[in-house]
C-alpha cells in the first residue's frame, strides 16, 4: 500500500500501470469482447462513438436530438444519421453535448443539413473506432479517436463532387450558440470556438479541423443569427475508391488549444495507426481485470468496463491548461482536469470501482473537484464540461473525497478538502437550489410543507453526505466537526415513520404528510412530491451509513427481511409519476434501472438472509443485463449500471460507498482477477457455480473464513484470493 501511495504522490502511477499491463500473460485482445452497441436502444442511452479511456472526445453518429430518448444523441433502431459529432454523454438522463458535427454527403448543398440514410448492415463499432456506409451518398464513414482529437476516413464509391458539412452550431438540448468566433485557414483548415447554454450552462467549446488535401471550394451557409456558430460546406472532386481524411481537435480553452491538442494527439495522417493505438489503450485498461466464463459473460463484463472507463473525461489540454468553473483558463498542477462527474449516480459504485481498478484517476478527480471549489465557491453537485449542474439532490462530491482519503490516497490537500466539504454542506450559496441549510438544521429534516419537492430524498441524501463528512473529520482529528456532522447523519430518522416502515414527508409542525401513498413517484423541486426519481418503497432503504439503526426502525431483523421481501413482491405500479422516464428495470418496487435501489439487495446478508441476496442478484443478472442494443434496463448513468454489474459479478458490492467496506453477495462468474498497481493480484473464485448452484455455502479470504459477509478495501489491495463455495438451495438447507 505504501508503494501505491508513493506512486500517487510522485505522479508515476500511469507508468506503473502501463508496466503491469505489458505483461504477456495479460496481452489478450480483451477489446474483442466489447460491444459498444449495448445499451444504445431503449433507455440505456449509451453511444457507439469512437473514444479512448477517459478521453475528451467521443466522435460518432447523431441520429436524433431534442428529447429524452436522445440524451446521448443516438438510438440504435434509427436508419438515418444527422451527422457525426465529437462529444457524447453516455447513459445520462438529460441531453447535452454532441458538439461540432461532421457530415459527408453528395448532391445538392441547398438541402443541408438533412438526414442521410445509413446502411445498418455496415455499421460497426469497436473500442476507439466507428464505421458506417451512407449508401445514397456513396461514402463509407470511418472514425478513430485519440484523447483530444479524432480522425475521419471518408471513402467515396463514386467519382464526382463530394461535400463535407461542418455543422458547428449543432448540439443536444440547445442548438443555438453564442460568442462564436471562427476562421477559414488556407484551403485545408477551419478553427474557432463558441459558447453553448444548454443543460450545462455557458460551456466553451473550441475546435480545429484540418483536411488531408485542399478543398475545391468552401462556402458558409446562412446563419440564423449573427452570433451563431457558422456552418461550412467544403467541396472536393474525388475518384471512385478515394479516401478523404479529416482531423479534428477539441479544447475548452480556445482555438489555439484545439490546434495544439490536434498536433499533439494526431500529428500525422495514418488512420490505421490511430485506430490501433486506441485499441491498444483499451486493451491495456481492460486487461486490469480478467473474467472467466461464457462468451456472453465475457461480453457483458468487458462491455461494462468499457462503459465505466469512457468517463470521467480529462478536459485539460495537452499542455495542462483547462477552463475552470468560472471560465478562466488555468494551469493544472498535474496536467489533468476531470469532468463528466455524474456524482449522484457514480458515487454509489463507479467511483469505488475506480479506487480499485483505475486508481490513477482518483486523485485527479478529487483535485479537479477542489479546483472547482476554489473558483466556484462550492463543490460540484454534478460536473459536465467542467461546469456545475445542480439538478440532483445532495452533494456527492463529499463521499468521493472522503472515500479517497480513507482509502489512503494522499495526493490532494486534506485541509482544503475539509474546508470545501464544510463550506458546501453548511454555508448558504446564493442562487444554489435544493440547499436550505437553515431549515435542515432548524428541523433536522427538510419540511415538506416548506420544501415543495423532494423533501425526503433531500434529507436522506444529505444525511449520508454528513456521515461521510463526519468520517473524514474523524480521520483528520477534528472531533468537534465530527460530532456536528455525525449528529446530522442521524437526521434520516426524522423522516422515517416506524409505524408503517416507510420514509415519508414531515411538516414543520412535526406531523406526517397525509394522505400518504408509498407508490407515488416523484422528482423535481417544483413538483409536489417527497422523492427524487423514486418513491417511499425505494428511498426508505437509503440509509447506507446506519444499518443497525435502519433495522431497528424497521422493527428488527425479521421485520426488516419481511419489508425487503415486500419490496420485490409489491405491485410494479407507477403512481403519480412525474419521472416515469427514469423508472425502469422494475422487480416489484425495486427499480434496478435507477440508482437509489442499487445497494438494497446487499442489505439481505447484513440481516442474516444471504440466500435471498443470491436469488435477487441472479434475477437481476438474468433479466436486466444482456448483450446487444437492448442490453441495459435503464440509463447507464456514466457507468453506474455497469459498476453494479462488475462488482456483483465478482461477489461483493460497496453497500456503503465511503470508507472501503464491501458486502458480500453471490458471484456470477466462475473466476475474476483484478491486477493491482504494484503487480499483486486479487482473484475471486466461485467453486461449483452453476445455474442451480447460485447460493453461497462458505467464503474464505486467503484460506481464512469470512464470517461477517464483509471484506475491506485494505484486504483487496494486499492481493490474495477470495473463494466462494457455491451450492444449491437444497444443499445449503441440508448444511444449515
Compact overview of the structure:
The longest helix is centred in the middle third of the chain and has 21 residues, at 455-475. The radius of gyration is 26 Å and the shape is globular.
Folded structure, characterized:
- The chain is an alpha+beta fold.
- Among the domains are: 34-286, Beta-galactosidase, Chain A, domain 5 (Distorted Sandwich); 436-580, alpha-1,2-mannosidases domains (Glycosyl hydrolase family fold, Up-down Bundle).
- It has an eight-stranded antiparallel beta sheet with strand order 6-7-8-9-16-13-12-11.
- Strand 7 (129-134) and strand 8 form a beta hairpin.
- Helix 5 packs across helix 18.
- It starts with a helix and ends with a helix.
Rg from Cα: 26 Å
Structural class category: alpha+beta
Oligomer: single chain
Average pLDDT, all residues: 93
Helix fraction, binned, reads 25-40%
Question: In terms of topology, how is this protein built?
Answer:
Layout (H helix, E strand, L loop, with lengths): L1 H9 L2 H9 L38 E3 L17 E2 L1 E3 L15 E5 L10 E2 L1 E8 L2 E6 L4 E7 L3 E8 L3 E8 L9 E9 L3 E8 L6 E9 L5 E4 L10 E8 L4 E9 L3 H11 L5 H16 L2 E4 L2 H15 L3 E2 L6 E3 L5 E3 L6 E2 L3 H4 L3 H8 L4 H15 L5 E3 L2 E3 L7 H10 L7 H13 L10 H7 L11 H21 L3 H11 L6 E2 L4 E2 L32 H4 L7 H8 L2 H13 L16 E2 L2 E2 L18 H15 L15 H11 L1 E2 L7 E4 L6 E5 L5 E7 L7 E7 L2 E2 L4 E3 H5 L2 E8 L1 H7 L1
Parallel strand pairs: 31-35
Antiparallel strand pairs: 1-3, 2-5, 4-10, 6-7, 7-8, 8-9, 9-16, 10-15, 11-12, 12-13, 13-16, 14-15, 17-30, 18-21, 19-20, 22-23, 24-25, 26-27, 28-29, 29-34, 30-31, 32-33, 32-35
Helix pairs in contact: 5-18, 8-9, 9-12, 10-12, 12-13
